[in-house]
Design brief:
The chain is mostly beta strands. The protein is 0% helix and 52% strand. A hairpin with a 4-residue loop joins strand 7 and strand 8. It is globular and about 40 Å long.
Length: 115
């Protein structure tokens, strides 16, 4: 199983960014996908989840209305579109999934929100 994130960058407050995660090694379309983040000195937190078909999503209160999770099952890819970014969104962002093979994490991608 492999999860590979991309799209992290330095962005100004109020800006937008789209993260992507490409999955391999399991039947992607069968599983819930998640995005987490970990800011310096803080615990890893769950940001967003999406069900296997993409019809149901859920968000942390801190990002609700600003972030959108989506998936393309044909491309084994999950995205996180982030808008109205704030300095407190600065973190390493991880995609993750729990499958029949276990709990899986990507290596993370750094997002820094700063002027």
């Amino acid at each position: 199983v492999q999860l590979v994130e991309s799209g992290g960058a330095l962005v100004q407050p109020g800006g937008s960014l789209r993260l992507s995660c490409v999955a391999s090694g399991f039947t992607f379309r069968n599983y819930v996908m998640r995005w987490h983040r970990q800011a310096p000195g803080k615990e890893r937190e769950l940001v967003a989840t999406i069900n296997s078909s993409g019809s149901l999503t859920n968000y942390a209160n801190s990002v609700k209305g600003r972030f959108t999770i989506s998936r393309d099952n044909a491309k084994n890819t999950v995205h996180l579109l982030k808008s109205s970014l704030k300095p407190e969104d600065t973190a390493v962002y991880y995609c993750a999934s729990t499958t029949s093979l276990g709990n899986h994490w990507g290596q993370g991608t750094q997002v820094t929100v700063s002027a």
